[in-house]
Amino acid sequence: MVTVKELIQIESNKPELFQCGSSACAGCASVLALRWALKALGPKTVVVAPASCANVYIGIWPKASSAVPYVNMAFAAGASAASGVVAGYEALGKKDINVLTWAGDGGTVDIGIQALSGAIERSTNFIYACYDNEGYMNTGTQRSSSTMKHTKTTTTPTGKGMHKKDIAQIVAAHDIPYVATCVATDPQEVYTVFSEAKEIQGAKFIHILSPCAPGWRFAASRTTEMGDLAVKTGIFLLWKQVDGELTVNKRTLKYLDKSKRLPVEAYLNEQGRFGSLRKDQIQDLQDWVDRRCDKLARRV
Amino acid sequence: MSKIKKTEMDKEQTIIMSGNYASAWGAKCSRVKVVSAYPITPQTTVVEKLADFVEGGELDARYIKVESEHSVMASLVGSSMTGARSFTATSGQGLLYMTEMLHWVSSSRLPIVTTIASRGIAPPWNIWAEYTDILSVRDCGWIIQFASTHQEIFDSILMGYKIAENEGVMLPYFIVYGGFTQSHTSKPVRIPPQKDIDSFLPSPPEKGWSHLNLDPENPITHGNLLMPQQEYLDFRFLIHDAMMKSKKVIQKTITEFKKSFKRNYSGLTENYKCKDADVVLISYGALAEQSKIAVDELRKQGKKVGLFKLRYIRPFPNEELEELFNSGVKAIGIADQGTAFGNPTGGPISTEVMSLLRLSGKKIKVLPYVWGLGGRDVTVDEQIHVFNQLITLKNKNQYPTDDTFQHGTVWMGLKTGV
To answer: Which residues in chain A have Cβ-Cβ distances shorter than 8 Å to B62?
Structure first.
């Protein structure tokens, strides 16, 4: 893990490949993550961005925040288009260019899952990053299969009825060389996982929890706090699987112990999307977290 | 990457091959760099043959075996954006499944060439020759050319890349032929020496396409959101403009091809004995090729009939059709091997020809046909019958009276009582 001291150096020394002045919402975590991901990957990177907030916050034509090639792509085509970019470079003998798919959760767990599964099965040499803000935020906060249970969205006004898909485990089951999770609000983690992924040949997948102020309904100034609470409550688990070997992040490792982690209310109560939950619903989410933490603890 | 075997031809060779193999050979001889494909009947042997070429070391290309047709076209968007010459083949349902990406290709102005072994659309399942697949995507901004012989399939791929990659065109290119009737039948195809092909069709520019190249040294963003008052409309116009202007490039390329390989393709259309004809059938695909036999038969009987074959439907051959309308022809039949439910005639191309005819102000009698759907046979005798119906229309102003004449269109062989 890169240290904070190093990170401060990196911030001023490495080129800024995602420029300020983007058209992201105030408090957007996804742009923070993209900025640090590109710091880690460097200028020889091409971004393929299927339909998501990233198609808007990149800038309204002819303005753009990206200082690397950045292709807006069809919703279902994040992984497949990247496969083609990789194949094109390979066919033309162009080496050492990182190909990054930067997709939201809808573009990954819903409409894009087939192309993702195909691309990683084919051992495509690229990084697929899913910034997960747990819903279709760009289109007005509709539910996705990555939305947490009991979340109120515009298409689940009384709360979603089922738990979110565990996309990182689905991808890990493909037995690819690198799968990691991180929170968008922690630049140390983001920078570290992208730096690691860059050095690995084959398909890499990074699942990034990306707090969304307007969609989750919290004040834009509290974005990093939400990312932090997701880890401390065990709602989001930090781990990586490198060549089949599971490593749990130190922070998550600590919170696998129930006595150390915060109750889910610490997270839920701060967000409007979980407004007026009943006690049994809160318990339901607590049970879900406990179950997932126990399951991970058993694997350590 | 495996070393490429020297199997390229120094001399012209004639090989007996299927239409699908002609398609694979066309891609190989065009030195495509990326192939992406998903199997679908009746296209399958194209992508099998290409796999043989690549894995056998005869074609230096990356072959992405994707998990769906949507991913086929998406991956080719990616590969073409790096400047790699990119190819695929598909059919029927597969073509429909990639529709979203067809627009992505044309709107990104990527010169991808795709061959289509056309088939009927399900349900009910049908895998035989019919063009509703390609006709359904006729307005996606792709050049659409029909190849009615095996040789034409092969030759058209070479010409297709040359036209598509022309700086003034930069549009994707479909080459269409009938499932099974062409894809799975075998005929001799002449394969020119590779060096002649290379000089006719040089490699794409090393620096990639001038308008769009994914190069970290020269970063660009592509496809950013445009507000309504910005240039969205203008970009759309440029696609249409390039399509219309491609007609000249098509003609020029056909001329160059003739010079290089001594085979002549007439142009956007082929005029077969139309000059003095007072009855003309307009058609496309392999059935149009067959109509020539019917024309010859009727000519023997002294009937002045002709065939007007559409080689291209995008761009639409307006000028050529205008010329036909001005030739003194009295009655025209237009045969569609595909459907457009609920449009004025039920056939997409007959509707377009009729709208052009209306604009020309010529008083020519017209009878639209829908024929050969789902591989239904259309025999030479039936084609002769069509010409005779048109002669009756011309002479007596009389439309068919049997049950096949429905809503102003003849549905050839329509079973009564349906």
So the answer is: 87-88, 90-91
